[in-house]
Amino acid sequence: MKKLFLFVFVIFISSAYAWSQSADDITGIWWNDIKTSKIKVEKKDGKYIGTIVYLVPEKYVNGVPEKDTKNPEPALRDRSILNLQILQGLVYNIADKEWSGGLIYDPKSGKTYDCFVWLEGKDTLQLKGFVAGMRWLGRKSAWTRTSI
Predict the structure, then answer these.
(1) Of the candidates 112, 84, 83, 93, which has an alpha carbon nearest to the alpha carbon of residue 47?
(2) Given CB 3.0 to 4.6 Å as the disulfide criterion, which of 38, 79, 120, 122 pairs with 54?
């Protein structure tokens, strides 16, 4: 009987921990994978978005933040990458413990990809951008929680 009680207790504690993740856990400031920019993830209109809020000074050109020169729309190529929204439309899926249904924009290439994200611990945000609905075909990136 004691073994059964212990087993049920362990299962209860484990499941409580697993379900303790909240949709808002991805909000905050994150370093990108190469630590050249910080992205602020926040909830807007019920979905999660990410905006570049900091660029390392080495990425400035003549004292000015980089421009979005690779954007496929010529009219947008002169806008700054600083304050550029690069992540949009993510919705939390509690069953899969991930945020999905979003898009991520890569200013280096000017391309936009479908994406989903998940947390590993509290301080690592894993992102995967993919094309044509093929989640297994894409590129993964890890962002690290930080502050401004």
Answers:
(1) 93
(2) 38
